[in-house]
Amino acid sequence: MSGFRRMAERWRGAGFATVLLVILIAVNLLLNPSRFHPSAWGALIGLAAPLIGAALASAPVILAGRGGIDISVGPLMGFVNAIVIQLLFLKLGISSPLVIVPAALLIGAIVGAANGFLATVVRIQPIVATLGTYLILTGMTLTILPAPIGPAPVWLKAMAGPWSALPLALIFLFWWLVRQTPYYDQLMAVGSDDRAAYTAGVPVTKVRFIAYVMTGILAACAGLMLTALIGSADPNIGPTYTLIAIAAVALGGVSLAGGRGGLLGAAIGAIDIFLLQSVLTAFNVSTYVLQIAYGVILVVAVIMTALQERLSGRKG
Amino acid sequence: MADRATLSVRSLVIAPGASPVTQAIAPGEIVGLAGLDGHGQERFLKVLAGLERPAAGDVTIEARAITSFRKAVASGIAYLPRDRRSTGIFPTQSVLDNFAVSTLSRDMRFGLLSFAARRRRYEAYREKLSIVAPRPDASITTLSGGNQQKVLLARALALEPAILLLNDPTRGVDVATRHVLYDVFRGLAADGMALVILSSEIEEILLLCHRVLVFREQQVAAEITGNEMKSDTVIAAMFGRAA
């Protein structure tokens, strides 16, 4: 019973996003049944995976509160994409997942640690600190890889096809484990109120720093999923994920003030945006209009979430 | 119950120019801190908690120096903050999470958290402090002010401290709850815990404490014990008049 309640509680946070999800799935099924046929799920999830990954990656630092945000998630995805294909696969001839995956995660952890150091130890405002990293990573990616190049290892491409659910499943397993450790409670406490967390004996700086490292690692995962999807390296795609991922996180009911929401909500927000894209593309709507639609949905979602909170607050 | 310990304050100067304070707070003792707002009693309490640094002197507990909040917690000091809305509760978290945040690692089983163990620990304190919270997994903001305060007290007690520092613990708490808290405080002292209570209400201090330190201009203006503990004496000391 209490497990059910916990579940219900968790879904309520992402309330509007979940309703939108159901509607969008229904509309998509009506418009384009063959695309959403179970046999096409592998490719479909692979197509949505980089955005879901980017949203999941953006979530931990946002949960940690006090303006925590990492806008370098997109460029980090692009950087991982470039390193994996250009440096590891093409130059060094390494194709083994046992080297590529740890190398990518290590890059993510290092960039995340750098962001975390700037934002939590040096105490530069997170948006400025990660803007710096954003520019550095974008520039480094273009230096390594001035123009798109291919291909990608076969196993990696399979991660956007039949095996596309595997990386996401692993991320959720990882997050489930995090939830079973004291760290998760400390993260939510810090995000909820950092001064109260300090007086409760929570090591605030350390908790935030780890959140940045987790974001970096998850962004590297998203970078691998991006590489799998495009089956090549492209220096220009990564950075485009940053803002849309933050939109997905907000849509999924994660408060940008911190301490409220979770990775499930972020994923639902990302799926919403993906499905919306799919609906509008089915209507042959131009990509410019697509941007307008994202914006409108985001604003509506944030208003709906605020209203919902105010109403439930009055009831309690 | 944790080990009993004496909190020693040696030549402590709260603010430059004030005269030093030397005190020993023994197990089982309830010491009150009184004074007009801003006359140093809150700063004194925070120095005891390691949250603020004194101008001179030191605070030790069984020969361990309290120089930071972390050291204070590690040495068996628990601190209950004054303003529970801004520095106490986590409004987005549940009652249970609010209770457990200081003692998370105690529920570890085989490297992972046991939520059942956390629940059991909470239930013990819920009973002890008669917390009225129908659902431990509901948001803490659904509780009344008094019950939120009890959850915070439960959080501090879960650390099983030797010394409990309370910063105006009954502020904004209803009368019935106050008396529950008073009984709890007396019970803790009887079990050997040392309590330091800062209160803005003189009646409360007179009712609870064995002795009271009255602060005026960042120093202890009077230490009042026994038969002298009357509100006239305390008020006189607060305003710097001889009683």
TrEMBL record, chain A:
<dbReference type="GO" id="GO:0005886">
    <property type="term" value="C:plasma membrane"/>
</dbReference>
<dbReference type="GO" id="GO:0022857">
    <property type="term" value="F:transmembrane transporter activity"/>
</dbReference>
<feature type="transmembrane region" description="Helical">
    <location>
        <begin position="160"/>
        <end position="178"/>
    </location>
</feature>
<feature type="transmembrane region" description="Helical">
    <location>
        <begin position="288"/>
        <end position="307"/>
    </location>
</feature>
<dbReference type="InterPro" id="IPR001851">
    <property type="entry name" value="ABC_transp_permease"/>
</dbReference>
<keyword id="KW-0997">Cell inner membrane</keyword>
<protein>
    <recommendedName>
        <fullName>Autoinducer 2 import system permease protein LsrD</fullName>
    </recommendedName>
</protein>
<comment type="function">
    <text>Part of the ABC transporter complex LsrABCD involved in autoinducer 2 (AI-2) import. Probably responsible for the translocation of the substrate across the membrane.</text>
</comment>
<feature type="transmembrane region" description="Helical">
    <location>
        <begin position="43"/>
        <end position="64"/>
    </location>
</feature>
<keyword id="KW-0472">Membrane</keyword>
<feature type="transmembrane region" description="Helical">
    <location>
        <begin position="76"/>
        <end position="94"/>
    </location>
</feature>
<keyword id="KW-1003">Cell membrane</keyword>
<keyword id="KW-0812">Transmembrane</keyword>
<feature type="transmembrane region" description="Helical">
    <location>
        <begin position="209"/>
        <end position="231"/>
    </location>
</feature>
<keyword id="KW-0813">Transport</keyword>
<feature type="transmembrane region" description="Helical">
    <location>
        <begin position="100"/>
        <end position="122"/>
    </location>
</feature>
<keyword id="KW-1133">Transmembrane helix</keyword>
<dbReference type="Pfam" id="PF02653">
    <property type="entry name" value="BPD_transp_2"/>
</dbReference>
<feature type="transmembrane region" description="Helical">
    <location>
        <begin position="263"/>
        <end position="282"/>
    </location>
</feature>
<feature type="transmembrane region" description="Helical">
    <location>
        <begin position="12"/>
        <end position="31"/>
    </location>
</feature>
<feature type="transmembrane region" description="Helical">
    <location>
        <begin position="134"/>
        <end position="154"/>
    </location>
</feature>
<feature type="transmembrane region" description="Helical">
    <location>
        <begin position="237"/>
        <end position="256"/>
    </location>
</feature>
TrEMBL record, chain B:
<keyword id="KW-0813">Transport</keyword>
<keyword id="KW-0677">Repeat</keyword>
<comment type="similarity">
    <text>Belongs to the ABC transporter superfamily.</text>
</comment>
<dbReference type="GO" id="GO:0005524">
    <property type="term" value="F:ATP binding"/>
</dbReference>
<dbReference type="Pfam" id="PF00005">
    <property type="entry name" value="ABC_tran"/>
</dbReference>
<dbReference type="InterPro" id="IPR017871">
    <property type="entry name" value="ABC_transporter-like_CS"/>
</dbReference>
<keyword id="KW-0762">Sugar transport</keyword>
<dbReference type="InterPro" id="IPR003439">
    <property type="entry name" value="ABC_transporter-like_ATP-bd"/>
</dbReference>
<feature type="domain" description="ABC transporter">
    <location>
        <begin position="2"/>
        <end position="242"/>
    </location>
</feature>
<dbReference type="InterPro" id="IPR027417">
    <property type="entry name" value="P-loop_NTPase"/>
</dbReference>
<dbReference type="InterPro" id="IPR050107">
    <property type="entry name" value="ABC_carbohydrate_import_ATPase"/>
</dbReference>
<keyword id="KW-0547">Nucleotide-binding</keyword>
<dbReference type="GO" id="GO:0016887">
    <property type="term" value="F:ATP hydrolysis activity"/>
</dbReference>
<protein>
    <submittedName>
        <fullName>ABC transporter</fullName>
    </submittedName>
</protein>
<keyword id="KW-0067">ATP-binding</keyword>
